[in-house]
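Protein modeling request. Please complete all fields; requests missing the sequence field cannot be processed.
Requester role: graduate student
Desired output: 3D structure, token encoding
Chains: 1
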Amino acid sequence: MESRCSFRPRWSQTAVAALLLGAPLAAAAQIYRCENANGVVEYSNSPASSKDKSCRPVDLPSVTTIPAPKLPPGGQRGSAAPSGGQGGAGVAPAGFPRVEPGAQKSRDNDRRRILEDELRKEEGKLADLRREYNGGEPERRGDERNYQRYIDRVERLKDEIARSESTVASLRREIGSVRD
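Delivered output (180 residues):
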């Protein structure tokens, strides 16, 4: 049988204020290190009343708090305040070093060339792996008399192909994001 109590205490403003004023005192409470006869150490906020425990207060260093920095007018950390009242995406803060357009174009071209070289190497590696994999049935080698070694090599090849395909896809995405 379930009983319901309709009594709901009402807190007066003075009781709430007393609780809020007492809250910082609870944070500065004393901590005790107690050890029983068996050598088991316990930490408590009150000394033990039992005779088999020896308790002594622990001196803890004071806690240093640092307030969080204020948010910029845009409302998000790490974003610069928009200049001129326009959208903040891609807007550099005042005094941020600028790169000349010719130098940036040269950097972009170098980046594209490096990425294309890496892509060619990775595509060559992928073609070799697929050739060796032979559609899931690579030729057995002389050191693979044990069938499990052959199965392990097939699994390793399959994993390397998947990893190489992922790398090729990533390189293509990167090349696509380089400015022309």
